[in-house]
Amino acid sequence: MSFQSVVAGLPSPVKELVLKATNDGADASLLGESEADQKSVSGWIEKTAKGEIGKGGDLESLNEILVPKTYLATNYLTAADVALYGVLHPVFSNIKSASELTHPSVTRYFDHIQSKPIVRKSADALQQFGPIPIDVDNAPKVERKVEPVKRKEKAPKPEQATETAVPTEKKGKGKKEAASTDSAPAERAQKKEKVKKEGNEEGGSKKKEKQKAPAAPAAPAADDGPPVPSMIDLRVGHIVDVIKHPDADGLYVEQIDLGEETGPRTVVSGLVNYIPIENMRDKYLVAICNLKPASMRGVKSFAMVLCATSKEGKEGGIELIQPPPGSKPGERVYFEGAEYESKTPLPQLNPKKKIFEAIQPGFITLDTKEAAWINPETGSVHKIRTKDGVCLAPTLVGASLS
Known about the structure:
This protein has 13 helices and 15 strands. With 402 residues, the chain is of the alpha+beta class. It has two domains: 136 residues, Glutathione S-transferase Yfyf (Class Pi), Chain A, domain 2 (Up-down Bundle), CATH 1.20.1050; 173 residues, CATH 2.40.50.140.
């Protein structure tokens, strides 16, 4: 089903809003940067058109969907977000106080989407989707629940099972067989005595110590618990080659040296319309290295480039986050703070757990242009750095990072 036919199923004012944003906006990524993303965008718009999400103020299931998400269909703004914003607008128009904001993830999502420049520009042009002031600070917060680890019951020891199966002594015809079976405990006792004697002669204290040592507890999965930034594997990268994607006008295909013996990784980035190719060549950057590889228009991407996007949106500029001068490919990039600095990132982020999507809204550039993550619960600032210094955006202040 084509994008136009999917959009046609939206209610009239929302349809005009989506068409306005996609036709007037210079950002082609609203339709999806890859084939998989385009399918996801169309799928979510179709669900919105059918009233499966957000219709009539039924926000309970939508709130659960949005808990781990920044955007609906992908990890960047798309037409699916514009459509859902249009559907949610009348719902939030009728909310009079923060006490009515009982679905925190939906509230956070709606307020974020309505502030995006392309959404604001298209909405204001139609004069039906005016900005709605939302008291996010006094709204209920998102509660993250960690499911308890289920413990397996221990199976009975083989020795115990054998003893349970030993029959009692029988009278009459079966007496001979029973007597033979009942001799087993005596034989075991003799064997134990023999082992004990040999152990004393050969220094059996080692065996005794081994028996007393407690069994090591099973290590929990590394991504148990709420998402934290130290789960993300950030490293210094060096672009050794870059070309335009052969089948996508808005994409670069880069070869990025990350200090690995296997050689540079292939990385696909949607930066053609924002950073000239000459400004990509030979650049040092920060790469996110433990995302699941994804195919983008037929080219598999094995990492993601960390960029700063202007607080005015992509139209205001996008810049590569730069490591300190003299950085080497593969150097560790980490978050300041005792709770994060010594942690080991996950080998690969589980896409189902949306770890990066949960952390990303806290990424920002400070007034000093330094890259940082701000903890949404405590407000503490954790700069993104290497051992030699803090990573920076060249010019952007208050920019989001992704």
